[in-house]
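User: Fold both of these, please.

Assistant: Here is the first one.
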Amino acid sequence: MPFPFSLPTTSTLSFSAFLRSSTHPSLPLTATTQRSVLRAVLKRHKRLPASSQPSDLPNVLAALSEYIPYLLALDAGLSGGTVAGEEVDVILEKELELEWRATLTHGVSGRDPARVKLRSLEYEISFALQTLAFTYTLLARSQLWTLYTPTTPTAEQRTIAISSATRYLLQASSVHSCLLNRSGQWVNLSPVLDISPPILNALSSLAHAEATLLAVLKDDPYPAVIAQSRNKNDRDWMIKSPDIPRVRAHLFARLCLATAEHAAKASAMLHQQPGIPGKPQEDLLTYTDDLRRCARGKACRFFAIDADLGGSTGQAIAWLRGGKSELGYSSTADEEKNTRGLMTKLKRDWTEKREDRRIEKGSKEWGGDAGRLEEGRVIDMLEAKWVKMNDTINTQSIPPSAPLLATMPSGREIHSSPTAYAPPGLDEDVLAKMRAPVGEEDGDRPIFAGEEGDSSEEEGGGGARVVVGAFPGTGGYY
């Protein structure tokens, strides 16, 4: 499952206090208005319960889609460019001062990530576009969650959900690629780890890996069988056993290996030290490694299915045991032999039950193992079935797994390398309205300042206190 990113929040910012446009005087003020709307939407989204946040993501996406064209118009005006074929002139009167929360940087456990002070419009663009990419990833998660709801989805519903999630993940990868290209033009080093080139490259590869794995999930019947077996409300087993069609096992295995390669690349980029203080979140590092393990374990399973279809049940069992070692689990024989293996099995069972409860409650942390536990369940099911069949009917010898793992081929791509995201621009009629001068009653005040105060109130500080009976503005003295 895609990684559960946290959307960052930001401080207030009035572009009119830092920028001025001689050709379109209303542009900085209107951009401030759209940014204030986005800030209010992000703060409201953060305070929603985890189960209610997926339904609020379209509101976040709409606010970002409205704000980004104005932000890029300001950037084009500063660099002497054109917008919708019209020249826009923007003058920087003084250096911008803004703050965003660095949600990818490792911080104190149990506390909100620290806000980073930034002093460039380019960093504002980077955080806005990165928030857009995170929103696309979270929309993909919300689509995939429908596969694990108490009501078992039909084959058509499953295909639609996976196709939508794949489209969102490819869009997220495209946005990260766009940010990576923009960061190559920077003169100074990024002041925060979240928007540094290695992190952007890793996030693009990670989204591409997740989209590649979903191409396998769409035609893989076994995860659906496992999800149906643990669904307490499902009654289809009373009528018939689940249909498991033949799969293109070797092709799917190559796709899984391509996913593992992208995940390994993302993990290597995340472990780079670009000379910026801090390190990535441990959850993100663990998730990337789990995704690589899950992809390689899934590839071993498909090689096992291919061997079983060819009549080599012993070799198929060896592939399954190799897949369990790739996932980081002990084989069934080791679990039965020693106490350590038994304790590992008990810990794994407890982790699986906790993950099931997270899915039932719609918790934000569900799927944080990148599907590793689910793949382990599928391999356990096939291993128990084939070992029983081999012991009673085929009686083939089971070769060691290590030589088989050494013969795995390279991966095969299904999605082309993501093209850089082409952000939308302002329409001509919208840009023409920006030529109107700013009214005297507006001044530097944004048209929409949001319903809430600054984000510093989340830590308990900031924000004027209102004391009943006190003189206005003196609440801080009480």
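And the second sequence with its predicted structure:
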Amino acid sequence: MLNATSSFDIPPLPTYTLTPLPPVVPGIPDKYLQLIAPVVAYWGVSLFFHILDVFDLCSQYRLHTPAEVLKRNHVSRYEVFRDVIIQQVVQTIAGAAMGWMDPDEMMGREHYEEMVWAQRLRRAQRTLPYALGLLGLDSTKLGNGLMGSYPMLGGVISGGNYPGLMQNIITAQGQEILAPTFAQWELLAAKAIYWFLIPAIQFFLGAFIVDTWQYFLHRGMHMNKWLYTTLHSRHHRLYVPYAYGALYNHPIEGFTLDTLGTGLAYLVTRMSTRQGLVFFTASTIKTVDDHCGYAFPWDPLQHFTNNNAAYHDVHHQSWGIKTNFSQPFSTFWDRILGTTWSGGDISLRYERSRLSAQKQLDADEAMKTAPVTHNPAVDVPKAQVQSRDSKSQVLRESDHNGARVLQEERKEEMEARQMLRRSVRKRSIDPKSDTLRGLRERVTGIASNTCT
């Protein structure tokens, strides 16, 4: 039998056999599920928030009132729905083209990769004697002193020397030899690195890449007049964002900003197909949540980072459109480059928008119930001629003091208009109204009430 130390300095790597990886959902290859899941998540989460909107649930957490959605947005819900579908079709086609070129994923190499990390840990331990030597310490003496009571710690300090950890292996020539094996802590650490640490690093690095890509492109579209007018202004027709309007963009902007950004992060970080599935779906859900129009105190996505629905909503207002560019994960670049909103308390600005929208809505409702002569659908020129002729006829009735009659009618009309304005104003600023309840709390996301 060969001497183990002469053949192997560190434990050898195992062999492996590759086999096709079964799909997560039977019948749907993972590379296509990777495209389907974000779309399903987008509309599933959007449907949840849409139900809250339609039935006016959890209104104490709304950033905007229903009146603002109706009066301040410059695009219909149908147009938003249509353009989001177009973007998702383009996104799916691009993803399918990339998936078609990628080979099918295989399994069987996982244990081998774990052992690779265990080897790296063992090699890292080899540097400890040199580091301790720089401090004037004898690692061999320290390690031997700890071997009796703490054999694992003694092995680490002595440079990864574990004389009692050996295994029998069969060589490619069919010969059985004695070789070193890994300590239990090395195996557990290697598993943690391979299955948790590395995927976490890939995810957060991917998030940083997406944030960087979107920040500079997004900000560039606001700085360049042609880009804003031609592309990005479409998204800002939504002054009051809602969930399924998150991807309401010009198709070119949607492809450049969202599809290419996340695709680049996926390729650079070398995620697996299943990692990409999780990453794309999480990015989609976060984007929808940032446009949902609600500041929930119990929504984990709104507390994971400072970049949440209330933060991004400021960017959609006319007074904050040149701030808060960051999307969708962090506010890193806004803080570094000084583009975070710095105009102080925004609650009064939100209140002003609510009052204005409510007044417009009340005025529209008043017009619907107004007499036909005040209906905007009437023939205005003809009505003016009729009014002029009628006044002329009244003035000719000098015996009945026609001029005094017209003067009294004008006075009555002015009083009626003033009463109507006071009525609209009173209904709009009623302090008991749900539309103004908890304004500051909803804006800052610290409402004390709970959703029932």
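The beta strands are 19-20, 106-107, 166-170, 176-180.
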